[in-house]
């Protein structure tokens, strides 16, 4: 049976527990969607990266803790955020993580590998990509090449090409800034649709939500267009901060966090179809929807 998705509600897994899918990453592997999220049981510091799987994006089976707290970068007093996974062309899985100290001064990207999507992942270490600060991250893959999106507070939002083994960063493909040039966006995600790349990001407002933005380009190296809103201006993206936009069944799904800083573990999530085409990305509110609604998703301008 196809489950119903209710944007703005807490995600509950098949066992009735609050799914720890904060700062989520999603990939389709075979006939299932796998999702990895920050387990916020301890608040902002590290507990684990939790893994779940689903066939309909509504019903989530807990697959176990994919990466657990330990020593060094993974110590319980550290920040480990925004787990994102790519399936390497050789068939194994690489997890990318925002690794930080509790004061967010370390600003590094971490790498872990596993033979199966749910893990367990073996942590390999972290780096400052090409020497740059790296906080919020996203990933992208095309023709077997892996890319890392990474927010650098000094220089902007970088799109890096990964080394062939995906375990380090090789080169900067593009760096984008907010239109006023003040800084780059964070919580980045990138998709390709209809011959255009769509790069999404959120402004730098801590746990507070803001109007998330999109920029487009015909080439990953740019030029990237001026940024445009994706949801009604002033709605703070329906009170959410994006984590990923996921291609699903010919449509796309926006997934964002509605952070509740006093109890991050119970932060609700906003999952909505996002209409993408002709250089425009449009998020419209729905009280509920199912994966079946994505098939033949409406074009921008049509009523959802
Ligand atoms: C915004 C980031 O997008 C989140 O992942 C988290 O790091 C918060 N800042 C912490 O304030």
Automatic annotation (TrEMBL):
GO terms for biological process: carbohydrate metabolic process. The keyword Hydrolase applies. Keywords: Glycosidase, Hydrolase. Pfam families: Glyco_hydro_43 (PF04616). One of its GO terms (molecular function) is hydrolase activity, hydrolyzing O-glycosyl compounds. The keyword Mitochondrion does not apply. It comes from the Bacteria. Belongs to the glycosyl hydrolase 43 family. PANTHER family: GLYCOSYL HYDROLASE 43 FAMILY MEMBER, GLYCOSYL HYDROLASE FAMILY PROTEIN 43. This is Glycosyl hydrolase family 43. It comes from Agromyces atrinae. The lineage of its organism: Bacteria, Bacillati, Actinomycetota, Actinomycetes, Micrococcales.
